[in-house]
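One record is set out below.
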Amino acid sequence: MAVRALLRSHSCVHRRDSRSHSSQTASYCLQLVRQRDHDGFLCTLLLPPESQHSVFALRAFNVELSQVKDSVSQKNLGLMRMQFWKDSLQDIYEDNPPHHPVAVELAKAIQKHKLTRRWLTRIIDDREKNLDDRAYRNIKELETYAENTQSSLLYLTLETLDVRDVHADHAASHIGKAQGIITCLRAVPFHSSCRKVFLPVDICVLHGASQEDFIRGSQEKNVKDVIFDIASQAYVHLDHARSFQKKVHGKAFPAFNITVPLDSYLRRLRRADFNVFHPGLQRRDPWLPLSLYIRSWKKTY
């Protein structure tokens, strides 16, 4: 039932596209998010219709930036891609968007909802800083990166819902930090296969876990203890975000559907005894659409 409901919503998006836009650019954004940010795709389908196109544009923009680091062979190429988006943002706010499908849809979202430029700029700037292939020095540095990227995306999503509220922003800040931490954990197997480790150095040192331990996919206790500590920090942020729940306007709740896949990953990681390399963690949660539907119906996050 939940899957059918989400697919019906997806179908409605396509019908609105064909009626209102001649919408190759909107379809491009939707498909990019569907392929590269599946959790975000499902969450966006549950947003009010007046926000969906805009959030698909925002998420597509985020995908474009997040892919730069892993898609270029040299940092200079990455810097050029980032400069393109800095220039594009400047042009968009001067009502002259470039002929790029994501930029075109982003311009529509900015115009429709008067989106705050600062959050978009912050996402680009921190994605650019993160082009360096180095581990986070400590958990605080990872949280700052998550705040400047994932939380900023949530602030923008709230603006598409016409929510500008300090309590909602506080919740978004903590949810974004949790999301950034969990994204870092989920990427460990991929990065390890590339002989890269980005986990906070302070926590690895605390438990005596070396980069080589992660590169060879160790399942020793010290490696699991690192993952446990990092995952626990994500849980703390989710718990803190929920402490604002009674103060947050109900209009904001759809922006926070992303807590459902975050909860799912933490639950499955716990079942795997914090073995971040467990194959089950690399597969999509088949119950996620149903869980999203139920959470949306209950109007909680």
Confidence is low (pLDDT under 50) at residues 13-18.
